[in-house]
Amino acid sequence: MHRTNYRGGLPATWHRGAHRSGSAHGARARRRARCPPKALALAAGINHHRFMIDAFVFDFDGLIVDTEWCEYISISEQFERYGQCYAVEHFQQFVGTAWPTGWTRELIDAVGEPIDEVLLNAERRRRRDELLHAAGVLPGVVELLDVARLGLRDRFAAVLTRDDVDRAKPAPDLFSAAARALDVSVGRTIAFEDSFNGCTAAKAAGMVCVVAPNRITMIQDFAHADLVVSSLAQLELETLRLLVAAAR
Questions:
Q1: Backbone dihedral angles phi then psi of residue 55, each to the nearest 5 degrees
Q2: What is the pLDDT of residues 196-244, one digit of tens each?
Q3: I need a surface site. Which of 18, 57, 105, 115 has the fewest CB within 10 A?
Q4: Residue 154 — pLDDT band, cuts 50, 70, 90?
């Protein structure tokens, strides 16, 4: 995708939900200084009269930053220290949903002897943060947001996390809450995801879903997605508009 073609002739108007600085949603968004794990970052402002798109809803982990790969590497290295293997096929089933069991317990069970879980977690977090610092934002994310001229944190109208809803993905709760936070129609909202569970949740909420798999989730089945791309950098706004139009 060429950036000049991507930006050409694009109007820039904020959706009415993005300017509610005095609302509860606006206050909650301002209090969050960064996107925590399992977050949805919400970008409103696409001129929906021309493009028929009310909002973009972005998953965070594995889509904006390759956090899931960093998480996997940091855990698998702890397993390797004790002569164990932590298969990516095992890890990927937890991507995009609540973590059902702690990895430290899995390692202790595999080794068959006590291990200090506090030290394990501390070393894993140190290594994960080191990898995240070097990773940066994945290709196409900033460019796609700049299409709507939404000024990463200050480009989003709101941020929601797993803590804001009762059920984790693949339940649709987080995406439904996102639409309510932005006061937009789910049918004219595009969700960007990287996992099977995330795509399932977005579709269950009634949104159009574009999937850009990462190194962990590329082996998953995305037959239920509206579009699958190798990178968000491939996307043209006209393609997204046609997806929304076709889904109506």
A1: -160, 155
A2: 999 999 999 999 999 999 999 999 999 999 999 999 988 988 899 999 9
A3: 105
A4: low
Q: What is the pLDDT of residues 161-180, one digit of tens each?
A: 888 999 999 999 999 999 99
Count structural domains, the chain: 2
Domain holding 180, by residue range, is 3-65+137-247
Examine the domain organization and report whether 185 and 86 are in the same domain: no
Q: How far is CA 128 from CA 50, 92, 131, 170, in A?
A: 42, 17, 5, 25
Residues annotated as part of the active site: 59, 61
**Total-model pTM:** 0.71
Give the total residue count for the chain: 248
* Cα–Cα distance, 184 to 14 (Å, whole number): 12
Q: For residue 60, what are the CA distances in angstroms to 12, 52, 126, 195?
A: 24, 24, 20, 11
| Domain C-terminal end among 88, 106, 135 | 135
Q: 103-111 vs 67-81: helix axis angle to the nearest 10?
A: 20
